[in-house]
Amino acid sequence: MYVSVRGIPRGTRPTTRVPRVVVVLGVVSLITDVSTEMVTAVLPLFATLALGLTPLAYGMLDGLYQGATVVVRLLGGFFADRLRRPKAVAGAGYALGAASKLMLLPVAGAGALSAAIGVDRAGKGLRTAPRDLLIATAAPPDRLGRSFGVHRALDATGALLGPVVAFGLLALAPGDFDMIFMVSFCAAVLGLLLFLHHVPEHRGARHGGTDAGRPVSVRDVAALLRIGGFRRLLCAAALLSAATIGDGFLYLVLLDNDAVTTRWFPLLFVCTSLVYLALAVPLGRISDRYGRTRVFTTGYGLLLCAYLTAILTGGPAGAALSLVFLGSYYAATDGVLPAAAAPLLPAGLTATGISVVQAAVAGGRALGAVVFGAVWTAAEGDAAVWTFAIALTAALIAAIPLITRARDHRTETR
């Protein structure tokens, strides 16, 4: 991938290729996301139709889906920095994700389903920060947004293909969820093998501890909160995420409003991923040029548009527009947030700092899922969406002054 660079003499061909390890990690994420999104695409139907869960029960399940990663994200980032072996920590996370797919086969109730989801989310939480550290250490500082964008685009390709595979399998064998879970397991194992054999362990100076030869301690982690720009970014991200509706809930609202039918439900995930795939790299490049925090807050404005479109418009056209806004939101936030956080962090605490931000986002989303499920159970889907649209508007008003003050430069180790 080559792009033009200003200020380079004519006749010189600068190399701005995304590092190979970023592409390999993107392919690993692609395969892993095929596995994960096959399950995610059918999970709302499996939980509400096959298992008969109420909206409140599904909200608590979705909250577990988000919240199970909070502590494990922190542990993943901390041990990646402390042990100086991010590949080993991430590999354990990929292995847990594969094991969780087998756990889905005997599921017959909410308890067993919650356990399988908890293991899957724990695996995701464990691998995310070490993987992002491998990306951040491989990419030049002025191309962080682009590198994360390329990785997220490949990740989104997997998120696009997963629901398509699930849709095809359900078309061949309606109601056979076990077949989906087994195919998902095989894909997860393939991604794990690719990661183990083709991603090198990074032992460079950028995560060698806060001082030469000294491992990372809990005190070092606590010191991150004294970094002004990082603290403001963390608070803004947590506040905005708490006003976020889970994708499955938004899709169920569209289903409840007859904007889509049950048959086409898995393809809603495909449409969202397609938009994400198309915009992840362009928005990553825009964030490098015009400011990552600006693009990040714009993403939540797009999410607000997705909410309003879902309840104010009807039919397939309204559903499609809502999915465009939703996919644009992910493209503007998912890879941009770690790219914004990395330059604010000391070299030896990059993985830990990224994991702290991601854990705050996961915790906010978990809280939002439970509250949304409770509001829907007490009222109805549209009323719950209106409630969260108002909450997100208030969160944006509060977060923008915080996040725009976060300085986009690397803080030296203290």
From TrEMBL:
InterPro entries: MFS, MFS_trans_sf. The keyword Acyltransferase does not apply. The chain crosses the membrane at residues 21-51, 63-80, 153-173, 179-196, 233-252, 264-283, 295-313, 356-377, 383-404. It holds the Pfam family MFS_1. Keywords: Membrane, Transmembrane, Transmembrane helix. Coiled coil: none annotated. This is MFS transporter.
